[in-house]
Amino acid sequence: MKILYLHRSKEFGGYSFEELFTTIKNNIKNCEIVDFYDKTFNGFFKNISAVKKINTDLYHITGGIGYYSIFLPTKKTILTIHDTNHYEEDLKGLKKWVFGYLIYKLPYSNSKFITVVSNHTKNRLIKLFKFNPNKIRVIPNCYPINFKYSEKKTDDSIFKILQIGTKKIKNLERLIFALEGLNVELTIIGKVNNKISTLLKENDINWVNKFDLNQEEIYTEYKNTDLVTLISLCEGFGLPIIEAQVIGRPVITSNKCSMPEVANDSAHIVDPYNIEEIRFGIEKIINDDNYRNLLIEKGLKNAANYSPNHIASLYENLYQEILNIN
Questions:
Q1: The pTM is what?
Q2: What's the pLDDT score for residue 13?
Q3: Which of 16, 188, 245, 308 is the right S-S partner for 27, CB 3.0 to 4.6 Å?
């Protein structure tokens, strides 16, 4: 069985779902996986032509370029949709309609199955675009294969907190207000703008900023922290939750969108709009050793549901199912 993975252009790079599907590819046992990246050639139709010349049993569009499905055989095409956040939060008017048509509606019509990373994303697609639920399969993300448990003893002199992401939806401003006056060191992964930098200084936060890290460097940041925060306003999945948990770090996360689903009662859940609630959760994890250890224990059990081998097997089963139908 040969599967062609169609990825976004390598210019997106970094720590994203291209790396996720590299992990999945490396853990699928009975398939030959070939990768193709958008913009490999100069010109969209040159890329389409190159793709169609590759001999394969199935095409799997891994995210962001669903419009490729228009030019591929519907019965042999799978599309993964990670979230609807950009469509719902950032776009309006004609741009929103065009984006919805090209990224969601038309690719849906030209794909055999849609895979999504959470029930939240599935439900949003059904509500927004009236997708047939029988055509959607929920296959969660997995943590990277090299992420493993690493014991860390909390340093009494300063408690280290790790925040992954700096986009507005990551809710960094409210996290900063919640940390005011606490003896912590906040490491922020992602470029910090002037507004956030000013807030950090005004609230006297001890902070470190790092960006453009590779996967191994991010793994090191997880190992060096005492707590991971993901109190986003919305996430299609919330990968830092399980990445932190498999390493053995407690997580405080949001009660919105997919995050309670992914955390599955193994993280401290807060209202991301309530600064006092966020602060209370952080202080409880800092000061209550038993509670912190309970979150770590429950997190390790939860992360086991998202192992690369397990998630790869779910995709492999879907590929085989489609081939059997065809």
A1: 0.92
A2: 55
A3: 308
Would you call 176 helix, strand, or coil by DSSP? helix
Mark 52-84 as b/e (b = at least 16 C-beta within 10 Å): eeeebebbbbbbbbbbbbebbeeebbbbbbbbb
- 71-77 long-range contacts, CB within 8 A, separation 24+: 72/110, 74/109, 74/110, 74/111, 74/112, 75/112, 75/322, 75/325, 75/326, 76/112, 76/322, 76/326, 77/110, 77/111, 77/112
289: β partners: none
> Mean of the pLDDT values across residues 230-247?
96
Tell me the average pLDDT across 100-127.
96
State the pLDDT confidence band at 325, using cuts at 50, 70 and 90: confident
Q: What are phi and psi of 136, to 5 degrees?
A: -110, 130
Give the separation between CA 148 and CA 136, rounded to whole angstroms: 31
Residues 6+ apart with CB under 8 A from 240: 164, 165, 228, 230, 251
Q: Nearest CA to 166 among 245, 230, 260?
A: 230
Report the C-alpha gap between 249 and 131 in whole angstroms: 37
Handedness of CA 44, 49, 53, 55 (dihedral sign): positive
- Tell me the mean pLDDT in the region 119-125: 97
Q: What is the mean pLDDT of residues 192-200?
A: 96
Arithmetic mean of pLDDT over the chain: 94
| Nearest partner of 61 among 78, 38, 84, 45, judged by Cα | 78
Rounded distance between C-alpha atoms, residue 221 and residue 161, angstroms: 10
Predicted pLDDT at 202: 95
- The strand pairing partners of 254, in sequence order, are 270
In the predicted structure, residue 249 carries a pLDDT above the cut 90: yes
